[in-house]
Amino acid sequence: MKPTFYITTPVYYVNDIPHIGHAYTTIAADVLARYHRLTGSQAFFLTGTDEHGQKVQQAAEKQGVAPQAYTDNIVTRFQSLWKTLTISNDDFIRTTETRHTKVVREILDTLLKNGDLYENAYEGWYCLFDERFWTAKDIVAGNCPDCHRPVEQIKESNYFFRMGQHQDWLIKYIKSHPGFIRPDTRKNEVLGFLQQPLGDLCISRPKSRLNWGISLPFAKDYVTYVWFDALVNYISAIGYLNNDAEFTTWWPANIHLIGKDILTTHSVYWTTMLHAIGLEMPRSIFAHGWWTVDGEKMSKSRGNVVDPTAMAHEFGVDAFRYFLLREIPFGQDGDFSKSAMIQRVNSELANDVGNLLHRSLTMIERFAGGVVPLPKPSQDGNLEREIQETVGRMKDRLDTHLKALEFHRAIEEIWRVVELGNQYIERSTPWKLAKDREKHENLENVLYTQMEILYWLTLFFYPFMPQTAKAMATQLGITLHFSNPLLETPRWGMFPSGTTTAKGTPLFPRIETASVNLTPEIPVKPAPTSEIPLISIEDFMKIQLKTGKVVAAEAVPKSKKLLKLQVDIGIETRQIVAGIATKYTPEEIIGKLVIIVANLKPAKLMGVESQGMVLAAGDKEVEGLLSVVTSVEPGTKVK
Ligand code: MSP
Asked: Quick one: pLDDT at residue 528?
């Protein structure tokens, strides 16, 4: 039997359209669900919408439509966002569905029968925004202590859940289950809250005040308090009181992923509700931090709400997913800015990953006719062993980090393999091996190892960037069924030799800052006045500059100015004819690191073909060749 893994996100309020906060929790849950499926678990990933309550009723009223019609419309915004972000949820629950409302009513009936609910006249201070009562000592200068809006005094009869009687049990449970509420700072927060006497919870609202909710089965003039309704989604969706086999397969949930603002409702209301109906606790409740935007709290009034659909369209779905989980440790608050995102996309995705794939496939094409060679069993290189060991340890490391929800650490581990892959190319110099017939076996082993590294990276990337993983598999020429547990028992040597690769377009095109509106971070400066015609950054970026090492040089016959150079640029050696003979002799130029224009159309100078151009300072006469301050490998991009 496969181990099971049940993960949930909050059900999101439909009083507004989705924003980056919603996307964050859902993407994190998606990564965990995909990782568990890939490593052999049977996963169930639940998300959905919270459709009752005052906020939704008010939003519908504002638009002049019935609440159901209003929610039917907004819910599609969430569903289509999850499609855009390639979210692999197994179910989507709406709290207005009968399968949910029925279970809420049955639970209420049971609680009443067991004496866990009682009716009482109540007088208290009510916060309309938070939909909850406060006592006189809670309120601050007539305002809600939570949202700081004015509260009003209300006297009415209501139903109460005997929450207070579970207090001692809850404290003991939290203390004896270290991973139950995470991170530890949040656990301590809850234990701090529980140092005060825990009161009973008002779980009804008179219909005279709010009618958009689930009617109490035993009191038709009341609806259920929205949290007492919404939290139940975690069990109603998996067949509680309806399908025992299904329910026992999934419950208790492994992780309820939530934001830090809804910690109390989950770790106190929900846990005591479950305790009262005799169900096991979820294995873990993890509260993540909040995003600010360019250093400010995200809010409609500030006009800085980040729209995840727009981000995905502007930067790519996988780049957006990657950034959210790479940028900040999951339990902490963090700041979202487009410039931070562009930086990561360009250096970590376009550069590190894009280059590795592109260079490797170029070499397979150039040195092996596009067909992945068979490695020889005698291979015993140290470099290869180091790579095999690193990759071999990866699954354990990913397991550890993802169990702790340290997404950024898991990504750092994966990047170690990316770096190792790039270093491997530099250190094993396949372009040199290709020139030496006797090193042919070596070359084949190196090329194979490159493909194997890319194979493993494809699997490691998959939970974080599923579309990228699929595109990589296509370029590698292999078919991978990611719904299979491909990472269950990893072993080196999985890449099928004889595969014909299919190099395609770069996975992550560089994002040019000039094409992105970064306001308010970078104010637009007036264009400088100059006599030199200005070119756009796009024009400049068309020029590919690279470092190259001059490996041979000779004078071009009958020319005083020209030298014929052979320049090693990593994956190949270029012949370049340069007008530098008045400044340099062939002997002194050999071994120098120069900068070349790598994508210049070939041309003939004095009948000799030149495949590029070296850069030099000077106007009419060459005064000095351009180089780099620190020695770098030939073929390094110059930006
Ligand atoms: N409907 C309730 C949850 C009921 S679960 C039984 C609710 N919905 S919500 O739509 O308001 O919020 C959903 C989630 O979005 C919360 O986990 C919240 O923490 C998260 N976020 C809202 N703004 C956020 C940021 N700025 N940053 C990160 N997450 C944020 O609460």
From this structure: 41
